[in-house]
Amino acid sequence: MNRKDQHVSLAKAFYHTKTNNDFDAVSFVHQSLVSAKLENVDLSTEFSGFHLDFPFYINAMTGGSPKTKEINQNLAIIARETGLMMATGSASAALRDPAVADSYSVVRKENPDGLLLTNVGAGRNAQDAEKVIDMMQADGLQVHLNVPQEIVMPEGDWDFSDWQDNLKEILTTIKKPIIIKEVGFGMTRETIQQLLALGAKNIDVSGNGGTSFTQIENTRRKKREFDYLDNWGQSTVISLLEAKSFSHDGHILASGGIRNAFDIFKALTLGAQSVGISATFLDKLMSKGVDETIAMIESWKNELKHLYVLTNCEKTADLIKSPVIISGQPREWAELRGIDLKQYAQR
């Protein structure tokens, strides 16, 4: 089976095993009197010149085979009908084999006026990045960081020595907006500081709690030597706590383990300017089809409006003023890392 097809099948298979994650450790301080009006709620958000009507988007998933072409086509239809931004999975497969380029370009064909991102790994240079942007007529680029996945992947690339040089070249050469993102292993403040120093303006901290690519790649091995890495990394909640001190230096995005509208809302409250979703959309699409996925997204939009009012907010940017209590593992992490959680509880 094609590696990209294996990734999709395993992501779908493992999805329902991820029932709990660190978003469950985030609680809101209830306010009994609110003045916000539902009709005044504006879900839009902005970062790096992008204006999104809604504070969540379809994050990178797949591409590189006939099967994943169909998935990308359906995701593009969903993005078109819901008005969501969409990112494809890594387009490196198309750089290696131009015959599969249509599994990515189909997204632009299906959604000619949508806001679309393409994706490459940090092992690629600026010339490669330009190629995939042109191939998909993309509005922006994601560059993904996936060291643990490469380590466990049977055919992984284990030389990461040129990544920082590649990132700096891409960030200084490519004129379109660029998002540097993890692939589900989270980020620390040290990593974020390094990325900002390289010139990054948009950072998706993408923590664990959802799809685990170490688990997927380990399942693809003849022997599961790396079972102990299935949950490697930091959660999205912990990563957002780590990112808090850089909120004025760049745009922080979040993904990883987003199960519903409430998780989106929590991520926004913790400082994310927009939230990417992959596995939940993929599972709904593959299980129930395009129409039910669209219906779920429309329901999420409505739920978010009500959640904004519940916390007396009418704009996405106001959510970071909502007081929250952090418990469980994120609290333990914060205490050991010297992160002041009172700032969240007393806002």
TrEMBL record:
Binding residues for FMN, per the UniProt record? A60, M61, T62, S90, N119, K181, S206, T211, G257, I258, R259, S278, A279
Where can this protein be found?
A: Cytoplasm
State one molecular function term (GO).
isopentenyl-diphosphate delta-isomerase activity
Q: Which UniProt keywords apply?
A: Cytoplasm, Flavoprotein, FMN, Isomerase, Isoprene biosynthesis, Magnesium, Metal-binding, NADP
Top-level taxon: Bacteria
Function according to Swiss-Prot or TrEMBL: Involved in the biosynthesis of isoprenoids. Catalyzes the 1,3-allylic rearrangement of the homoallylic substrate isopentenyl (IPP) to its allylic isomer, dimethylallyl diphosphate (DMAPP).
Similarity-based family? Belongs to the IPP isomerase type 2 family.
Specify the protein name. Answer: Isopentenyl-diphosphate delta-isomerase
Q: Which gene encodes it?
A: fni
